[in-house]
Amino acid sequence: MYEPIHTPSSRRPAHTAMAGTPSDFPHRSREEELDIQLAGHLAALLAVTDELRAAAPSADLDTAAARLAQQVTRLRGGRAQVRSHLASAAVTPRLAALHDRAHAVAGRALLVAASRADTAVAILAAQRMDAHAAGLAEQQELSTAG
């Protein structure tokens, strides 16, 4: 008759980690996770801001980009954000879509900043939301007037 093969490895339970032994994956605190998430949102907002700066340069966008880069660097422990230097597009830019996307990303950053009680970033995100809402309204006026 058939007898199953029993080796020491086949008798071992699937989960052999014992209490008190380090696991194979790193654990982060809630604050560390929020920092990572917030840095990601701010980096995304910085990327959209850089796109807007390439399409329609302004001193306000330059200042916002510098402040966003500073906060991303702070949240990433001194590692600066890699940035793309876009040339202005030859095609008519979709400024309304960019302002809409930036507004949404700034809103996400505001939520995370509020949950981790980062007042400086919350203020910056709220200011960017206001600026992009105004930019979107301006673009919508231009599209209906023209």
* H/I helix tally: 5
Q: Average pLDDT value?
A: 83
**What is the rounded distance between the termini?**
88 Å
Strand fraction: under 5%
The main β sheet shows up as:
none
- Give me the strand/helix succession: HHHHH
Give helix % range: 55-70%
Give me some keywords for this one.
mainly alpha; elongated; 5 helices; 146 residues; single chain
Describe the structure.
The chain is mostly helical. The radius of gyration is 24 Å and the shape is elongated.
Secondary structure blueprint with pairings:
Elements: H1 8-11, H2 30-55, H3 59-75, H4 95-115, H5 119-145
Helix pairs in contact: 2-3, 2-4, 4-5
Task: Compose a concise summary of this entry.
With 146 residues, this protein is mostly helical. The protein has 5 helices and no strands.
